[in-house]
Each structure stands twice: as C-alpha cells, then as structure tokens.
Design a protein that fits this description.
The structure is a single chain. By secondary structure, this protein is mainly alpha-helical. It contains four helices and no strands.
Length: 90
C-alpha cells in the first residue's frame, strides 16, 4: 500500500467515524437506540481519532462525558508524542 492509499483510507475511515458520532447525536435527539460509548471509543482508537475529535467538537456530542473525553484527550496526546518523535527522528 502506498502512502497516498494509506492516507486516503485513513481519511475515509475518519469520515465514517465522524458520521457515526453524528448518527449517535441524531439518535439522542430523536430518542432512538444509541451507539454505545465503547463502540465510539473503539472507532476512535482504530485510527479514527480525528473523526472522533471533530465529531465531539463540531457536533458538540459527548463533550461533557469525561468517560469519553479523557480517553480521546489521551489518544491525542499519544498522537502528538508520536508526531513529534517522527519529526525529531527525521
């Protein structure tokens, strides 16, 4: 898999994760069955951190739930350390 294919795949996956957060928000408003928090966290940790963060911030969904906000913040901390290390090594 080339770099371009990888980043396109990650981008599409993050779009799907963002959509799942939007769908859960819609279900919350309409009173339908919801997506579990475990599933939302799993999607975020499976290369969907950007989509999860954008879903939380743009859609204002689950931002007050520390059970979801803290792991997403930790995930982004790991991303930042990894990115910084990648820049330092280069």
């Amino acid at each position: 898999m080339s770099d371009t294919q990888f980043w396109v795949t990650v981008g599409v996956w993050n779009l799907i994760v963002f959509s799942m957060y939007g769908y859960d928000k819609l279900c919350a408003i309409k009173g339908y069955d919801r997506i579990s928090e475990f599933t939302l966290l799993f999607l975020a940790f499976a290369f969907g951190g950007i989509g999860a963060l954008l879903g939380m911030v743009i859609l204002r969904h689950k931002t007050l739930k520390l059970k979801l906000a803290i792991p997403i913040a930790l995930l982004w901390s790991v991303y930042a350390v990894g990115f910084g290390y990648g820049l330092w090594v280069k």
